[in-house]
Amino acid sequence: MNLCRHILLVDEDGFRRRDHAFLLRICGFDVQTVITPLEALNWLSISRAACHPCDLILMVGFLSLHDDHQVFEAVKEASAMVPVLIVDRDPLTGKQIVWQKPSGEQPSISYHQRPQMISDIVRSFFGGREQKW
Questions:
Q1: N or C terminus: which one in the chain shows less Cβ crowding within 10 Å?
Q2: Domain that holds residue 77
Q3: Can you point out the beta strands (E) in 1-133?
Q4: Alpha-helix residue ranges (DSSP H) falling in 2-117
Q5: Is residue 96 included in any domain, yes or no?
Q6: pTM above 0.85, yes or no
Q7: How many whole angstroms separate alpha carbon 29 and alpha carbon 6?
Q8: Residue 31 confidence (pLDDT)
Q9: Is the pLDDT of residue 59 over 50?
Q10: Cβ(59)–Cβ(11) below 8 Å
Q11: What tens digit of pLDDT does each residue of 45-55 get?
Q12: Tally of domains in the chain
């Protein structure tokens, strides 16, 4: 079964971004990568205009973002149309934090003592909503 879900991956760390994109592609996802939340907003506006939908915005390491806070909030607000999933690490406890907001729903936060793989988190997010394209 080919999921063919389209994911916009936002991650400032080049090595981590490349590794996550590779693993997600192996799992059957179509992945577009950008470095910053501002690039994500630009990509979203261009992709909407070109009718290339995005099924999920996956942001890695941006929950504690201090710079460009307004841009970050704008990306989270984009979840009115596109779900947003943010994976980060709590600097005090070291626990993995997963913030998710399915489109049109209230956000939820979960904490994981043992970090989960990004590909597992994404597959879990889509759950029973998998589609064949």
A1: N
A2: 6-55+64-127
A3: 6-10, 30-34, 56-60, 84-89, 96-101, 108-112
A4: 14-26, 37-49, 69-77
A5: yes
A6: no
A7: 6
A8: 93
A9: yes
A10: yes
A11: 777 656 667 88
A12: 1
Token duo for residue 54: 């995005």
Asked if the structure places residue 42 within a domain, the reply is: yes
Pairwise CA distance, residues 18 & 24, whole Å: 10
- Residue type at 93 in one-letter notation: T
The closest of 105, 20, 109, 14 to 63, measured between CA atoms, is 109
In a domain, 132, yes or no: no
Give the DSSP letter of residue 93. Answer: T
> Could you report the per-residue pLDDT of 65-112, keeping only the tens digit for each?
555 566 666 766 665 677 888 888 777 777 888 878 776 677 777 777
Q: Which two tokens stand for residue 59?
A: 């942001």
Tokens of 31: 């992945």
Residue 76 is assigned to a structural domain of this protein = yes
Q: Which of 29-38, 44-53, 109-118 has the highest mean pLDDT?
A: 29-38
